[in-house]
Design goal:
InterPro entries: DctM (IPR010656), DctQ (IPR055348), TRAP_DctM (IPR004681). The protein is mainly α. The protein has two domains: 176 residues, no CATH class; 369 residues, no CATH class. The protein is 77% helix and 0% strand. The protein contains 26 helices and no strands. The protein is globular, with a radius of gyration of 24 Å. It starts with a helix and ends with a helix.
Length: 617
Amino acid sequence: MLGAAPTQRGGDRIIAALLLLSDATAAILLAADLLVVCGSVLLRFLFNAPVEWADDVARGLMVGSSFFGAASALARSENLGVAFFVDMLPAGIRRTVDAVGALLTSIIAGYVAFNAIKLGWLTTGQTSGSGLPLELTFYPMGVGALFMTVFAGHLLLRRSFRDTLAGAVATGLVVGAYLAWDGLAPASVPSSGTLMLAGFFVTLFGGLPIGFALALAALTFIWVEGTLPGVIFAQQMARGIDNFVLLAIPFFILVGYLMEANGMSVRLIELLQRAVGHMRGGLNVVMVTSMVLFSGISGSKMADVAAVGSVLIPAARRSRQNPGSAVALLAASAVMAETIPPCINLIILGFVANLSIGGLFVAGLLPAGLMALALIAVSVIFGKSRVSRVEAEPRPPMSGLWSGAIASFGLIFMIFAGFKSGFATATEISAFAVLYAIVIGSLVFRELSPRTAAHSFVQAATRSGLVLFIVAAAQSVAFILTLQQVPHAVGETMLSLSGTHGTWMFMLLSIAVLIVMGSVLEGAAALIIFGPLLLPVAVRLGVDPLHFGVVLVIAMGIGLFAPPLGLGLYGACLIGNVPIEQTVKPIIGYLGLLLLCLLVIAFVPAISTALPRAFGY
């Protein structure tokens, strides 16, 4: 036992060194991606010299950065999971369940690593459309997953031997029970699809991170069915994120972190506080308008929540406002901002459902405006007069605030002008938005040092790795569902119900499905799985696809922030340092208001379709 502590400290140092290497690799790959995208755009427009290999290189770098970023997130235990049910268990059982989750995470990560490296070996000698070696996509993915396996194993071994053993025994008993059942009465064993579904919900509600619960669902089908090779699983995960469109996700997330690092966020919020903070319910109005503006710059809702909440939740405490209500409004504002471009979920839905991303961006503006006005009206009607600031609190000069506001609006204008002019795609615009934020922060505000910029790249690579790993795992599940012909069955069922009760029933069912699944899944996964299932049915029923896409994204957002399972609400509570119990009552009121707005949006299509038609989408 005397040697255990030094051995553990030595292991921790090795893991710390590996984490530093994983962070650096993810950030360097993301920075290289930025240079490739910006360089290819400039060469195309300035010298009429398109770089044929740029898209292939950019996609490969993104896959590698995503898996290294996801590995870093796993090492820091930042993965999203449903903890509500596990927290209700007795302490001993909870430790065993957590150990089972850690063991499953290690197994899944190892399986991904092995098959990604194997896929790289199998594709050696094959080339992409531009002539680049195909294995260069799979080997970085495999090495990133290998880092993930090491980190997962370390988290497992850090538990007590008793808990680890209990977790291994519990897992072995479940597997042994299935094998015995299959051996003794194979005809009575549930189908592979049923086992996949059951395994997904059991592990999800058991606290397994969402990305790994989705991956395990697909693996359960593959292992039980026994006809699909493991490399198909790795191939589908890579295919889920190997797309140039999705590269906009890490870039827009990076913009959000750079805004926070270069002082743009604080300046804009302070200016809003001085403009409307004095009115009745002024702090709440500032919170809603801040989310509107920040969502027009950063595609990550949690980055927006962090930027706004880190400034305004402490301000709510200082003004003796209930912090639980403030966090609830912050979460509701994030739901409202789900359709404000450049929202990540709009990008993902456009990708998986083959919709115009620019059209979705424009279609979401008026619905977001309606919800924002509803939240502002409630804030003013039920708000209290603003308590004056403490005199000793420093106030920055107005000139600096206006410079921050002008810089922020310049970034918003650049994003919208880029889409409308056709100068560049969503991904290319997001890359130039990153350059804009770097230039403003380092040369204009002089608050963005190389160290803080590097930290922003690491944060963005980790956060986007979390999101894109879930996207990759959801793609593997979507592939299995397609094999099972689930989309066809869902479509026929929905058409039958709509034929009996009308299109309104289809809309209500779609909203209900996305709210429920948005609460148990991270938003991207819900859209990847259910977007392609429901959208073809909507088109067959005559529903405008852009309108329906906006409805789906808002419904998913309501579920994402709905208690008790909504992962977005847990994130907002962590940022505001408020127990979730204090937010339940106010958030239900705000979400009820947003649900009414959603029903209006759903049954008045012109709210979503007027602007796209005016802009030619």
